[in-house]
Design a protein that fits this description.
Blueprint lengths: L5 H21 L11 H17 L15 H9 L3 H9 L3 H10 L11 H17 L6 H10 L6 H15 L22 H7 L6 H26 L19 H10 L4 H5 L5 H8 L5 E3 L5 E2 L17 H20 L3 H15 L9 H6 L17 E4 L1 E2 L4 E2 L12 E5 L8 E6 L16 E5 L2 E3 L23 H7 L8 E4 L25 H5 L11 E7 L3 E7 L18 E11 L8 E10 L5 E8 L3 E3 L4 E5 L4 E5 L4 E5 L3 E9 L5 E7 L1 E5 L12 E4 L11 E5 L15 E2 L2 E3 L9 E8 L8 E7 L14 E5 L28 E3 L7 E7 L5 E12 L7 E5 L5 E6 L2 E6 L7 E6 L2 E8 L7 E6 L2 E7 L6 E8 L3 E7 L6
Helix pairs in contact: 2-10, 5-6, 5-7, 6-8, 7-9, 9-10, 14-15
């Protein structure tokens, strides 16, 4: 079962990006990627390319438009698209004229000139663009050539071909080097142009060579993105960087139209992206401070800014248009369900099809008569695993049998309810690319508001240096915290000697190269030798009552399976099982999270993390180890339950494992403040000592924000969880007088004068300011590392603050990760299990207590929650038998996990057979039993006998 100004900001961005890439490369695994699939992929792509070229229809038009589509377009011009049709007449240019020529319109369609005149108008636009030194791309002019082909003279046709040959050269460029591979779709410029004149007898040999070679290489390059998407669709960099997709959209669509085939839907990764976005769309909208307007948004895993769909701007409009075009393509192929579902997403997330004005291409491709039907209306399940082949019962595979997909499991209580329970659990099979974070096994939970967060911290901050004195100037919060395991609801195993190549040791998952210079590194790597392979999903099952999923992320850590750089293995097993117990109305839902962590050494500290926005309250007593009661690190040895209350919703998390006598629970977050005793000048970049009123509560290495400016209520929104702050990125102006200092130490408590020692200012974060005495000196605790955790030295931890309000960045995601909870066992052991029950609900709602279930032989654990029980194997092997006690009254529904798939099991209660059940393909079985107020002993075992 093993499972600054903008120009300055841009320069900084590129410099920092290069720094990150080069640094991580220093400790990348030196394994040589296999080229075992180079031959087969080339052979496949060559064959596909030749098939496509061989089926290109003769005659014109054939790019986006065919003669067969013209009658329907003529009808639409007078009905559903009448406004756009009228605008094309009013604002007529070359492309509009080309369309009118191709359609052969007459007076009944508003024609003001003859068909030949329209053709000559389009021809003039084409020749003017060719001869006038225009920078127009050949692909953009191809529509003029194709749609007005019959009106062009032979000389004009040849001039276009010569223009294309000069611009394109001997071969079509497939990518732009930087985005080659898993980072983005290939962008072949020239395929549409070659498609336009192929078969016209001018230079068919040139066109054919261009097309075959370009299609072949585009298909090969696209295999990387196709692998990421899997059959279900998806983008591993999350839901913000989706604008990197679509480079093949127009070429593949043109090829599909010209060949009267499903080439576009078969090959275009963007065509499957809406499935990912639908599953990642939260049930409720979010409001931007001061705007009074709320908009939908997507789950924010990976390098996301907090962006609503309207924040995507013109890029979002382009994506929405392409989604609507894709919907129209599905309708043309007879798939009304997918077409309607995609149109629902366009309407729900983007406000409908963006304004198209007089665009003739969109006139041809869009179909505004498709009814938008939501997920519930089309029968979409309430749970979906993207990257999971449900029929085969295993992780998705691409066309060559490689692991594929993004491994995101989305689940919810309802589709049409803004207060629905919603969760995502993720376990990608590969670290595909650098905008992914090192966070396999992460999850998020929401109900009316986000509760358990997808991530803590935020992208794009200009901090540098700090107490670590490392060699990497820049991105200390992003690279030391935000992109790392520590910023998510995850598991840490802290080996104090683990080497992360100069970045902080967060105890989390290993770092791999930011991106590879060749797409095939991940794709061509062997199953066991590919250092980018990080495991992935191993189980997924759904029913009306529950969703069960499990993943193995052993390879994501420096493990006995794989290591990177100088690090040695620290674990031999890391697995997580995630169960959603759904109630009929979604008002009594629970999540059961069970973890197995087997460390190489028993003294490696293990931590279970929960990232939050609001302060969690303990049901036990707590001691302040750093900071003060309002902000710091608080330690409890008798806490079992934490409760988080927000504006509308609340979350209760109960720890069942480690057991209470072997458990430490920490609360980290908030902030504390002292005051500045002596003024600071804008040129005080350090190292300097800073005199303050007191050092009480400060960590050993303070990282402080110093300001005399009051908080901006529209940008520092810390207690309104249905509101996001106003935000700015890479601005050309300084927002405030705030400065940040990283200090190597502080004077002892009671020593006078109190000072922060050897402090260096974060100069990239702010141009600096003169700060008067009396200003606030703020120490935050929300992005703390784990330095010293192996010695229980909370004061040794370092905060990696996010630079809101400094110079060139303000607002945005400063709510994310204001607080976190850490759970760790007291005793040293190689194998530890964590078992938690999380209950999201609307504020003021009640719920059932969670009680630990355990077997006498130490083989299984579980949770009893009201009248529902879920049980798991302690170790990584399947259970063939087991026993456990249960107490209570009434009927109890039970879910047993980690059984041998397909085997018959007999279940006995107090010695009496109560069920004989076949374990599912995912190793589960369910049954109901009746409890009568006393303890009952349950036993289960594989049925043995003849033929078994």
């Amino acid at each position: 079962m093993k499972m600054a100004p903008k120009s300055i900001a841009a320069r900084w961005f590129l410099t920092l990006l290069l720094t990150v890439s080069l640094t991580v490369l220093l400790f990348a695994c030196r394994e040589t990627a296999s080229s075992e699939s180079e031959g087969s992929t080339r052979s496949w792509a060559e064959s596909e390319a030749k098939k496509v070229v061989a089926t290109i229809r003769k005659g014109h038009p054939r790019i986006y438009l065919t003669p067969e589509r013209i009658p329907a377009l003529k009808t639409e011009a007078l009905t559903t698209k009448a406004k756009q049709w009228s605008l094309m007449h009013q604002r007529m240019g070359g492309k509009q004229a080309a369309l009118f020529y191709a359609m052969g319109i007459g007076p009944e369609h508003g024609a003001k000139m003859s068909r030949n005149d329209y053709g000559r108008m389009a021809a003039k636009a084409l020749t003017d663009a060719i001869s006038g030194g225009s920078k127009a791309a050949p692909d953009d002019l191809a529509v003029l050539y194709d749609w007005a082909h019959g009106a062009l003279t032979q000389q004009e046709k040849r001039a276009f071909v010569d223009f294309c040959k000069k611009r394109i050269g001997k071969e079509i460029r497939i990518h732009n080097e930087k985005t080659y591979g898993y980072r983005a779709s290939p962008r072949p410029e020239g395929i549409v142009a070659a498609l336009a004149f192929y078969g016209d007898g001018i230079d068919d040999a040139y066109a054919e060579k261009l097309l075959v070679t370009a299609i072949r290489e585009t298909l090969r390059d696209n295999l990387a993105m196709e692998q990421v998407a899997g059959k279900d669709g998806g983008f591993a960099d999350g839901t913000y960087y989706i604008f990197q997709l679509g480079g093949t959209f127009n070429p593949f669509l043109a090829l599909s139209t010209a060949t009267r085939s499903s080439f576009f839907l078969d090959q275009e990764v963007f065509a499957r992206l809406p499935n990912h976005l639908i599953q990642a769309l939260l049930p409720f909208p979010i409001e931007r401070a001061k705007t009074g307007k709320a908009f939908r948004y997507f789950a924010t895993f990976h390098d996301n800014w907090t962006a609503t769909t309207t924040d995507y701007g013109s890029v979002g409009k382009g994506m929405a248009t392409n989604m609507a075009i894709t919907a129209a393509e599905y309708r043309r192929k007879g798939d009304e369900k997918t077409a309607s579902l995609y149109m629902w997403l366009v309407k729900e997330a983007f406000g409908g099809i963006p304004y198209q004005a007089e665009n003739p291409v969109s006139f041809v491709l869009l179909d505004e008569t498709i009814p938008p039907l939501g997920p519930k209306e089309v029968g979409l399940p309430l749970a979906e695993a993207l990257g999971w082949d449900e029929r085969a019962g295993e992780i998705d595979r691409d066309r060559f049998g490689k692991k594929a997909g993004i491994g995101w499991v989305a689940m919810r209580s309802a589709w049409n309810d803004p207060d629905a329970t919603y969760a995502l659990f993720k376990a990608e099979p590969f670290y595909y690319h650098g905008h992914m974070h090192h966070d396999s096994l992460a999850f998020m939970i929401a109900k009316g508001e986000e509760l358990a967060l997808a991530r803590s911290g935020n992208y794009m901050c200009w901090y540098e240096g700090g107490p670590l004195r490392d060699k990497n100037p820049g991105w200390p919060q992003a690279a030391n915290f935000f992109t790392r395991t520590i910023s998510t609801n995850n598991l840490l195993i802290y080996d104090p000697n683990e080497d992360f190549g100069g970045w902080a040791n967060d105890g989390g998952q290993r770092i791999t190269t930011y991106w590879d210079d060749k797409w095939g590194r991940t794709y061509n790597g062997t199953a066991n030798g590919n250092y980018r392979d990080i495991g992935g999903l191993v189980r997924f099952e759904r029913s009306d009552r529950y969703v069960y999923t499990a993943a193995d992320a052993t390879r994501a850590y420096n493990s006995t399976a794989v290591t990177t750089g100088k690090s040695k293995a620290k674990v031999s097993l890391v697995q997580r099982e995630f169960v959603y117990l759904r109630s009929p109305g979604g008002d009594d839902d629970y999540f059961v999270v069970f973890d197995r962590v087997d460390a190489v050494k028993p003294d490696f500290k293990k931590l279970w993390l929960l990232q939050l926005r609001a302060r969690p309250e303990f049901d036990g007593s707590a001691k302040v180890t750093v900071g003060n009661e309002s902000g710091g690190i608080h330690r409890s040895e008798n806490t079992s339950r934490i409760t988080v209350r927000q504006e509308r919703s609340q979350l209760r998390s109960t720890t069942l494992l480690p057991k209470k006598d072997n458990r430490v629970v920490r609360r980290l977050g908030g902030s504390m403040a002292t005051t500045l005793r002596k003024p600071l000048r804008s040129t005080d970049n350090g190292p300097i000592d800073i005199e303050v009123a007191s050092t009480a509560g400060l960590p050993e290495h303070p990282t402080v924000i110093i300001t005399n400016q009051p908080p901006d209520p529209n940008r520092e929104v810390f207690d309104r969880y249905s509101v996001w702050p106003q935000a700015a990125h890479a601005s050309g102006k300084s927002f405030s007088d705030r400065v940040a200092y990283f200090c190597d130490g502080r004077t002892r408590l009671g020593q006078s004068p109190a000072k922060l020692l050897d402090c260096v200012r974060a100069i990239k974060s702010s141009p600096g300011a003169d700060i008067p005495a009396g200003a606030r000196v703020i120490q935050e605790f929300r992005h703390m590392g784990v330095e010293g955790v192996d010695r229980d030295n909370d004061a040794g931890r370092i905060d990696y603050p996010w630079g809101y309000g400094f110079g060139y960045s303000y607002g945005d995601g400063n709510q994310y990760g204001l607080w976190r909870v850490e759970v760790s066992p007291k005793k040293h052991a190689k194998l530890d299990n964590f078992l938690h029950v999380l209950h999201p609900s609307l504020k003021g709602s009640g719920g059932s207590d969670a009680v630990l279930i355990e077997s006498r032989d130490d083989s299984l654990y579980g949770a009893l929650i009201g009248n529902r029980a879920v049980l798991f194997a302690k170790g990584a092997d399947f259970l063939t038998k087991g026993s456990y006690p249960l107490s209570g009254n009434g009927k109890v529904w039970q879910l047993l996990c980690d059984l041998k798939p397909g085997r018959d099991y007999q279940v006995r209660q107090d010695g009496k057979v109560v069920a004989t059940v076949t374990a599912s393909a995912q190793g589960t079985l369910t049954f109901e039993s009746l409890l009568a107020g006393r303890q009952s002993q349950f036993e289960f075992s594989v049925v043995t006998g003849k033929g078994r």
